[in-house]
Amino acid sequence: MEQLPWLPAHADLGAALSAARRLEPAARFAEAVRLAGYRRDFTLTGRIDRLATDGLADPALREGVRPALTPLRLAILSSHTVDHLVPAIRVSGLDRRVALSVHVAPYGMYRQALLGEDPELAAFAPQLILLALDARDAPIDLPLDSDEATVEAAVQARIDELRTLWRRARARYGAQVVQQTLVPADPLLFGSFEALVPAAPHSVIERLNTAIRAAARQEGVLLLDLAWQAARLGHASGLADPVRWHQAKQLVSPALAPLYGDLVARIAGAVAGTSRKCLVLDLDNTLWGGVIGDDGLDGIRLGQGNATGEAFLAFQRYAAALGRRGIILAVCSKNNPEVAEEVFAKHPEMALRRGDIACFVANWNDKAGNLRHIAKTLNIGLDSLVFVDDNPAEREIIRRELPEVAVPEVTEDVSDYPAIVGAAGYFEAAGFTADDAARARSYALNAERQAALEQATDITGYLRSLAMKMTARRVGPAELPRVTQLINKTNQFNLTTRRYTDADTARFAADPETLLLSLRLSDRFGDNGLIAVLMARPDPALPPGELLIDTWLMSCRVLGRQVEEASLGVLLEHASQRGVKALVGEYRPTAKNGMVARHYEKLGFAPVPAPEGAESGATFWRYELRAAEAPAHYIEVEAA
Q1: Is pLDDT at 525 greater than 90 in this prediction?
Q2: C-alpha distances out from residue 5 to 38, 110, 113, 368, Å
Q3: Beta bridge partners of 519
């Protein structure tokens, strides 16, 4: 089976790895990160992992690596052998822009590690815990004639045990838990009749997986849905191979390690906030067959009636579905803009419409420059982009010029495009809310705001014309999932980039001494949704009556609209009501949040020495409430 088909093939990956061994440590690690973006088998994956060893262990060697990597500690607690999978997990992490440190608990000791004492796991302090279980681990073994109620009770008992393990993992380590679903390992007993026998082995496993998914949704646990992957890949995929199982208790064969590693790494990326946000699409021979400038509106192949036209329509429908999920859609095409936009407006078979596209760039400039323009216009990083283009030369140019941009290696047949983009997992999610679904529309509205700004004669008049309204509230149960999601994925406008689990956020929201606020913004163009999260809390290093601003994050799409000033005003009002004397802001620099380095200075905070025990490089800023004046802005603020 072809491993990682969305990645490009290297002309001679083995030779490139050999040459990289002679480089200096920093350059060697940077080359390992680059080579992790190519198609590879088990052996080559292991060689890339060895090349990256020093860099993964030494943060100094990771400085300057492009794209920047987010460090994350992953612990794997399993009932099957996973040691042979660890290199693939780390290497795929590099491709997903995550520097993964991996700890593997002793084989089969997952219960003891969570319910008892595990000094090594405690010292490792995992941020992510993968509970990788197999169907043979303590199977539910009931008489085949057991009735539905008996099977259901047995399944519920197993789910209750898993809930206990999940909760213990969160309580003890504050980690995000990922549960692996169960892959059937034994042959069917009844053939197609198996699903109609409640106690048949495959029937029980299917019930367990359904119950695991439901419980995970309730408990805020993420899934590594290996059962769905097994169904997609088929029996010969390398999952639950009886030979590998009996020889080494390997549920996942070495041949499948690169894919398994990527499945784990993309979840780690979603937790770390490195999942992609924007799908950028070429037009000619990507969204329709033919060249619109040559073939005309009636000559392009699109829609019902022939196989090629239906394939292009299917890809458009998949892109539109991603847009409804909240993925931003953009266009980057070498074309005359009027001709290109006419297809969206007039072709009856288009599944995508112009209003679905947040940024439409059609010109004769180089596509690397246009992608930079798209990222700047949308106010997102280049590392948020996925660029789909049928032209292999254009794909190679973008990979060379903009290594931050993900460029799937699509085939010559557009019928494969949805499967390739979907299988690549660029848009892996760690949550989904109504605000997520509205995100793409909000970026499209931002383009309208930008147009209004360009037409305005002065910034004051523009800000007044927006008629902005901010709603501020204490975070309640309904907002917790979205707030946690923002805390864990916001990188650029994030003063401290602290990451918290669902349990942490719920605890802060319930703490009467902690201010955890959510801010929403609307204007005459529409609703921006939840755009900022602020958290201020007492800290042992501060005197009584002062609060540390533990978290201040904001969506970049509302920059330049005085939201920072309005947010500070909200925080000052809530703090004053509690008799707080001063607020202390902390800025912890990262590879991505340089844009907010002077945030507190601009808002009138005074620099103060870092308290004892503060993170190296962090700066601190103090704001006296007794001398504070409400910051000036043109936003109407109301409490909810």
Answers
A1: no
A2: 9, 33, 37, 24
A3: 472, 532
Residues 235 and 252 in one domain: yes
Q: Record the tokens describing residue 65, joined without a space.
A: 């690596």
CA angle 203/209/210 to nearest 5° reads 90
Please check whether residue 596 lies inside any domain of the structure: yes
Tell me what the mean pLDDT of segment 201-208 comes to: 96
- pLDDT reported for residue 452: 65
Burial 558-592 (b: 16+ CB within 10 A, else e): beebbbbbbbbbbbbebbeeeebebbbbbbbbebb
Range of the domain at 179: 69-272
450 has pLDDT over 80: no
Distance of CA 270 to the CA centre of its chain: 3
| DSSP 8-state symbol, 236 | G
**3 state DSSP class of 608:** strand
| Largest CA-CA distance found in the chain, in angstroms, rounded | 80
Determine the average pLDDT of the residues in 243-271: 95
Residue 25 lies in a domain: no
Q: Are residues 372 and 226 in the same domain?
A: no
Q: Do 489 and 524 sit in the same domain of this protein? A: yes
**For the domain that residue 185 is a member of, what is the CATH number?**
3.40.50.1110
519/625 same-domain check: yes
Does a structural domain hold residue 529? Answer: yes
Same domain, 353 and 226: no
Determine which helix (DSSP H) or strand (DSSP E) holds 334, and give its type and residue range: strand 328-334
Quick one: what percent of the chain has pLDDT higher than 70? 97
Question: For helices 257-272 and 42-57, what crossing angle results, to 10°?
Answer: 40
Q: Are strands 468-474 and 515-523 parallel, antiparallel or unpaired?
A: antiparallel
Edge-first strand listing for the sheet containing 328-334:
359-363, 328-334, 278-281, 385-388
Of 123, 428, 158, nearest to 266 by C-alpha is 428
- 254 lies in the same domain as 283: no
Cα torsion angle, 45, 46, 50, 55, sign: positive
Structure tokens at 267: 């979840």
* Bridge partners, 635 (sequence order): 468
Residues 417 and 532 in one domain: no
| Strands of 515-523's sheet in order across | 606-608, 619-624, 582-587, 546-554, 526-537, 515-523, 468-474, 635-639
Reference 127, options 268, 270, 276, 275; nearest CA is 268
In a domain? residue 452? no
Decide which of 246, 272, 298 is a domain's last residue.
Answer: 272
Task: Let me know whether 193 and 255 are in one domain.
Answer: yes
- Indicate the residue among 272, 307, 341 that finishes a domain: 272
Backbone angles phi, psi at 26, to 5 degrees: -65, -45
Q: How far apart are the first and last CA of the chain?
A: 55
Query: Is residue 201 within 8 Å of 186, Cβ to Cβ?
Result: yes
CA separation for the pair 158, 214 (Å, rounded): 13
Lowest mean pLDDT among 113-117, 230-234, 274-278, 576-580: 230-234
